Amino acid sequence: MTRTVYLNGDYLPETEAKVSIFDRGFLMSDGVYEVTSVLGGKLIDFAGHCARLGRSLSELGMPAPCSDAELLAIHRELVQLNDITDGMIYLQVTRGNPGDRDFAYPPADTKPTLVLFTQNKPGLADAPAAKTGWKVISVADERWGRRDIKTTQLLYPSMAKMMAKAAHVDDAWFVEDGMVTEGTSNNAYIVKDGKIITRQLSNDILHGITRAAVLRFAREAQMEVEERPFTIAEAQAADEAFITSASTFVFPVVEIDGTTLGTGTPGPVAKRLREIYLDESLKTAI
Ligand code: PLP
After folding, report:
1. Mean of the pLDDT values across residues 62-73?
2. Is the separation of the CB atoms in 143 and 157 below 8 Å?
3. Where would you tag: which of 125, 149, 231, 247 has the fewest CB atoms within 10 A of its CB?
4. Residue 262 binned pLDDT confidence (cut-offs 50, 70, 90)
5. Helical segments of 106-198, H only
6. Is the CB of residue 182 below 6 angstroms from any atom belonging to ligand 1?
């Protein structure tokens, strides 16, 4: 089925949405994005994604393409038009470009390019792999230094995903100066003696919207949380591990660099946090 997508004010069949080859998103990866999950036809944590988009845009001196209210209306229209019950909405804003290729930014009043499309994923919250967990390998973190900005420069994370595939595992955790930063497209956690440990926020990692919600829910449930870096060796000796992202929610990790964690099955903390996260975020879905 041909999707209806959104491009700069128009709802179009996916085959008819065209962007200039001079667009800086295409030439320079000069763009930012967000992925918002849809469960039961409703948007999960839309306000969080909107707030982070605003921050990414302002860090790059890029104008907002429209208001948050307009963004919400576009998301909802796409959910309707594409009949999405469970899935994701991908949003991308680029700096556009009225002229030729140039390292310098175009004039400040250049209209940004705004693209949104849906991804239909029936049963997104019931992914069978969530019951068995992921295996991960560690790889050197060779990304740029502003990982807190959600840019479309995703080549190195894609390379890391391919390294994981080549190693017959599900994902990769980045390691810098001996410490885990995060996963290819998710935040990384370990659990030891009931304590949840995850790297603190800085420019080294993306400030996950799911991370913020999960840590809030964990603290509300009187679970102990420590925000600090950890090594792969510490992770391998942990009782359990998991990742979070908007499209995987809370997802168990059962093997790191060939070492099985605990019993090799999803741990109780990850399972409980997944349940709490799904329950609580469905309550505030819009
Ligand atoms: N870290 C990275 C590098 C990511 O790409 C993502 C999501 O794409 C996340 C963390 C998780 O962020 P969120 O929970 O907002 O989806």
Report:
1. 96
2. yes
3. 231
4. confident
5. 155-166
6. yes
